[in-house]
């Protein structure tokens, strides 16, 4: 491990501090804008010039989670006074809630497909990376290059063959299909990243475990995996972010049962066309799982590679 | 406990010959030290016995069992690695328990606690048991790695320079401790070092390796007093054996090209003149650097000698070793 021995000057510190602040503002403002829009009324959300200070309302969230129908005065009379706070919000717009929206299902689909493909990718990726790192695999370099080459074009370039293939295999609009697809796309990246991490783990640990009476698989499980945890965690975050945010394939290959949230959110229609507060609310909630996942694994990301007890 | 037999073991790594036709028997209950410089094949020999590497040809037997095709776990060996190889995600205690908890041993927890406590006591690491393995000093790591072998009772212990990064005091403590453990338990121990004091004090047998070949195998005294070659002779003895052209003193046998003189083979005060170039006072002994007919000689003299640089000392050999052009012993 090497540290820089020269302390940065005051000027350098200020300069880099300002750069970081500018970068933070540029990246965070759109995020804050989305979150704010979720709490605006539809009128405020499209007001020009844009409204920065507004009266917050949960209308966007109510609209996100419900289907509503326009109601006449008699219908409203008949229905009686609103039972819940969200019904009240709907009534104010002259609508009644007719049922829950599809957002919950779509969100759940995203969770199943995103985390499912990430988990599968980690299992396959770790096994492949371990083999590439430790065993004499014939044509190892060529295979590794081939694996990497699958990532050299944008995945969507093969959308049409994949679409046809999925149709023939009956994978269109299925959870399994999407999990397999995202796993295939992410696998090359994870094999390469994980191989790097596993290469860093000295062989001596496994050798010690072999001598201590463990089989190779047990040594892998008890000694290599815990030390690769950092690498697995950071790779998993990359995979999850891709699978979670993926839009193009989701539009193309899913429409109903397996549709994920990204193609669903922008198409939420309100009374007067696009319901921007509901779209923003959907986007805000959609951010949460990846954020939680990243924060949970933050420790591993920051810790970097373990510095082991092997003398070099 | 068992003896270990290597017969005709050879191993190459690419173009490098690591071991060539090594045969030796490590008798049951013996403490065998392998000596040789870096690259002589010491570590490779251990790895052959442990099963971490497979010989290209030849067989390794532990007891009467041929080890071919057996995994390290099936061979019932314990090994101390030169690089410690402590499991960094575990505490010291968990590191020491690790072999006892293996699916092969499955030791009950009570027995594990007793054993770990005992070994930690011997190695003076009891106070560190709950530290992370990575939070130790080099010497402590090395002791834990020795401990991880000592908690077991294997057919043979393999140790790869286990004392190399300890300070002098601890090293001499552990030398005695290791020797005691081995002597009391009757364990068979195959031990790699390039420290000749370790070899002389602990070994029942010494194997001298040179470029992958076992050049001599015997008791430390045998190798010291009766080396087969210049190479074997220079492995043991402090200061090292002096090698001069054979005709320097006259009386060399046929075929002898070099004469080898250990300090005790040099009589001072008789014979031919040599010049003192330097006097090194080490406390318990004083080393005399002499120049004799243009050749450097290092010998030992009286600790309180009054000799200084430039003085003349007469020397003559007594029962010297003679070596031929290839370095093999002639007489």
UniProtKB/TrEMBL annotation, chain A:
InterPro entries linked: BP-dep_ABC_trans_perm (IPR050901), MetI-like (IPR000515), MetI-like_sf (IPR035906)
Domain of life per record: Bacteria
Membrane topology of the entry: Multi-pass membrane protein
Keyword terms: Cell membrane, Membrane, Transmembrane, Transmembrane helix, Transport
Source organism of this protein record: Cognatiyoonia sediminum
Native organism taxonomy: Bacteria, Pseudomonadati, Pseudomonadota, Alphaproteobacteria, Rhodobacterales
Location (main, coarse): membrane
PANTHER family assigned to the protein according to its UniProt record, in alphabetical order: ABC TRANSPORTER PERMEASE PROTEIN, MALTOSE TRANSPORT SYSTEM PERMEASE-RELATED
Family to which the UniProt record says this protein belongs: Belongs to the binding-protein-dependent transport system permease family.
One biological process term in Gene Ontology: transmembrane transport
Pfam families: BPD_transp_1 (PF00528)
Subcellular location: Cell membrane
GO cellular component terms, semicolon-separated: plasma membrane
Domain (ABC transmembrane type-1): residue spans on this chain: 107-297
Residues annotated as transmembrane: 12-35, 107-131, 143-166, 178-198, 219-244, 276-297
The protein's name in its UniProt record: Carbohydrate ABC transporter membrane protein 2, CUT1 family
From TrEMBL, chain B:
GO molecular function, one term: ATP hydrolysis activity
Name by which UniProt lists this protein: Carbohydrate ABC transporter ATP-binding protein, CUT1 family
Residues of the ABC transporter domain: 4-236
SMART domains hit by this protein: AAA
Sequence similarity: Belongs to the ABC transporter superfamily.
Pfam family, one: ABC_tran
GO CC field: ATP-binding cassette (ABC) transporter complex, substrate-binding subunit-containing
InterPro entries according to UniProt: AAA+_ATPase (IPR003593), ABC_transporter-like_ATP-bd (IPR003439), ABC_transporter-like_CS (IPR017871), ABC_transpr_MalK/UgpC-like (IPR047641), Mo/tungstate-bd_C_term_dom (IPR008995), NA-bd_OB-fold (IPR012340), P-loop_NTPase (IPR027417)
Transmembrane segments: none
PROSITE patterns to which the protein is assigned, alphabetical: ABC_TRANSPORTER_1, ABC_TRANSPORTER_2
Keyword Disulfide bond: no
Keywords from the UniProt entry: ATP-binding, Nucleotide-binding, Transport
Keyword match Oxidoreductase: no
